[in-house]
Fold these 2 entries.
Entry 1:
Amino acid sequence: MPMRSPSRFALAVGTLVAGLLVAGSLLAADAPTRVAARAAQPVIEPARGGQCVQDPAFMRRNHMELLRHDRDATVRAGVRDTRYSLKACIGCHASKTNDSVNSASTNFCQSCHAYAAVKIDCFECHASKPAPGAAHVVVKP
Amino acid sequence: MSGNNEPVDPAGGRRGFLGVAAAALAGVLLAPGVRLIEIAQAAPGAASATAGARRGVRWGMLIDSGKCASGCTDCVTACNTENGLSGGTLPTDSQWIRKIEIKEVRTGKTQSLPMMCQHCAEPPCVDVCPTGASFKRADGIVLVDRHSCIGCRYCVMACPYQARSFVHEPLAGQKPDVPRGKGTVEGCTLCVHKVDRGEQPACVTACSDAGHGAIVFGDLNDPQSEISRRVAQYPSRQVREDLNLDTGVRYLGI
């Protein structure tokens, strides 16, 4: 009896730990699925160009600031540097299927903005497609 | 989504490959150290493209109404095509340039001339704008910054040349170089996107292509420019000179 009880105890503890681990891993695997079911994940279509003008993590947070800065420089002062221009963004990120960044729910701008629930006003005035036949700008890092 | 906890992009490998492929295509060496993209960026006007509007410049036009053919609307068509305008002539359609016929009442002599934003040095549209959306660039081009235009249309009322239009309906299919949208005022931009590239406005090119050559575009502040020499040589007029607006668009033969 004293010889067998520790092994039984160990077995019980082992089973409990194993059960917890399995349950934990199941829960962990379940979490993204439940989030995905609640809101459609953004579909990031591959870009046409080589490298973005900035690190993707930086762009996710700051693209609107860059665009706002350059829009004033372009409209007011006529500085048409293409580094952070909306036209250059569209040239690279336009979908290969419908040639747009904003027309379909899977398009680059639209899919992320739908996920973040932020309305885009840009394309009420700006073209969401690159100029026909225009080569997209490859930006050097 | 903090900086050190970025979600892994599942398409990273594919995108990486595409990036390499695109870079390989665009980066094809034509000669040692010369790539297609660098030639494109070194195109004429590229230097001024980064410099922006220069302060010493005053862009203007000299329109010879003697050379302007009655019934010819090539400048209007070119403007509509370049800027993505519908070309409609309803009161609610945008019209950046129009052809007008003037007639001397006593003699019956008629003349034809295009009328558009006169790009005044003292623009009334800028004076009345409550948000600062209507503004004059350093090089004299009068524009609307649609980002801050609230569509009040004070400028439409203030302009003595009826050169401004209001966009009433939602638009689609705008030109990438010419953003336009509902609820904002617009007018002739002197094809600012072309001027910044070192090109001439679309109407000027169309007029000379049609063989009339009635419009000369250039820098009024540069005494060596074609337009300045002509203004110095021939008697040119401003429309509504009495308003002392110092227009950038001048006319010959009216």
Entry 2:
Amino acid sequence: MSALFKQDEVGKIKSGKEAWQEQLQKKPAGPRSGKETFTTVSGKEIGPLYTPVDIKDFDYTDKLGFPGQYPFTRGVQASMYRGRPWTMRMFAGLGSAEETNERFHYLVSQGQTGLSTAFDMPTLMGYDTDDPKASGECGKCGVAIDTLKDMEILFDGLPVDKLTASMTINPPAPVLWAMYIATAEKRGIPREKLGGTIQNDMLKEFIAQKTFMCPPEPSMRLIVDTIEFGTLEVPRWNTISISGYHIREAGSTAVQELAFTLADGIAYVQAAIERGLDVDAFAPRLSFFFNSHVDFFEEIAKYRAARRMWADIMKNRFKAKSERSLWLRFHTQTAGCSLTAQQPFNNVVRTTVEALAAVLGGTQSLHTNSFDEVLAIPTEEAATIALRTQQILAEETGVANTIDPLGGSYFVESLTDQMERAACEYINKIDDMGGMLKAIERDYPQMEIADAAYSFQRDFDEQKKIMVGVNKYVVDEEIPVDIYQTDEALEDRQLARTNEVKNNRDQKRAEECLERLGEACSGKENVMPCLIEAASAYATLQEMCDVFRKVFGIYRDPGTF
Amino acid sequence: MARKIRILVAKPGLDGHDRGARIIARAFREAGFEVIYTGLHQTPEQIVSAAIQEDVDLIGLSSLAAAHLYLFQKVIDLLKTEGADDIMLVGGGIIPEKDIGKLKAVGVREIFPPGSSLEAIVDWVHKNVKPR
């Protein structure tokens, strides 16, 4: 035990605080009444002053410990950024594989330290460019990938054995991962050497981001297949990025983001254990992904609470023994939904504050949004400013010099504790429903988020929540930025390339591979080896996804609001 | 009593961003309109067919994944083909300034870009849409 405060001292401080509050009531010092409530962007009420009274039983060892030690509140690694700065990983994907490859090379030349791929909508949903459902969407909000050929071009000339690559891909995640492995192996790089991440988090798709293909149960099966395969054959790969980002963007509060993300994590760990995997064999490769919204302290408290909660969940609920299994390692992206189309240069400032919160919260990797991301795919210039924002934080400001610099702040510790308690309540509720899959079937997290989103919108309309340039300090303006334009001829070029690949491949081999994939899906065999075979035989993304759809069925949005 | 204004809120294409569509559907319902929400991933054909079947006065399309020019045009064309172009069409979402003019020129009555208030959108409907 190492209680920070002696209780008689706390008593004195409490009387002191009461006297101060009385003084406050008597003498309002400014135009405000002093009686207004102040809330976070999530609507959580914040007090005027925090003192030891707010964390009176605070036990240093139990609550904080040391970086790299249970409960990891202060960080997962002992040395944190003094050992290794966070990975600067800018999410990029535009138009064709060639164009995106060019952007990757540019970002690496400018000091980016990891790759992150944005796919276009058809790829995200498991359709080839030639499907009627894909009409008009090729390359519009990311890169179009139909076959291994596109993947080869996308990563051409990039050292995939040295740089880690992240792919934001969900229902077709096993397919894109198979293509990545096949691409690397064609270049002579064995799968054991590959490091990277596939997002592969379907639960949050049903809850928030809404790119879906098959129903929840078979989606879980495919995810466990990838976890199992990664554990055995691609040991440096993060087979899932359990994501709160999209939950938050869909309008959740910070607590909901925290709670639903960890509840999703619990469901994946449970499913992998049920498959017969040893928790300590796979848990170290689970990774997380959080939003950094504009409410600075709330975000920092969220990351600290997340680490402490996950360590507890893994240790006590799942009986993990290995220290690495207890680590909540996470990527952060600044909040897209906090940006404004109006006066877009202001977004640089928002993103800087959000990036700072992520760094002070101990993120392992970071994407900073470009100021024009609210208007279109970022231009090279805008993406460069966003990358420079991270470099300035890392190398000029000194904020990464010491670990968890806000640890011990009465306010931040109190807020961290409160977030933990509120998120635990949600997790208990979801446990009572029978776990996250059951909760999703009941539309529970979806409607909690819809309520929070609606409530924020109402507050925004009533100017209880301010967005500068949108509902306050509004000006008449012509949007002063050049925005990225997708090449209109791209779709035709992509169609031509996919046709050429199909015409030149060994058709019989491709068909056999797809047939084998169907058998694996119908039975219990892990689908990954079949997918790598099929990708190498230049079967298309949709041909493989159609096998999933045929065997597992298609999920449709219930459309509630 | 006059019948209520009927509105179809729809998400065309593969885009999954439904925060705005669901908020606006709720705001329309609270404003006393009858609201039908298609759910995600609807083709223009499905949207037009739902609009006709549900006999709506207004379609509100939401797009945040940059395929608005193609998809909105497709909905307009299909409404004409089906002889249902008296159903008014509006849109919202991430739609760059330069595209707003193009969309209005082909018959989209209004575009509500990011930052539009619910009150302003509901007012617009009251002023511009009459039950058919």
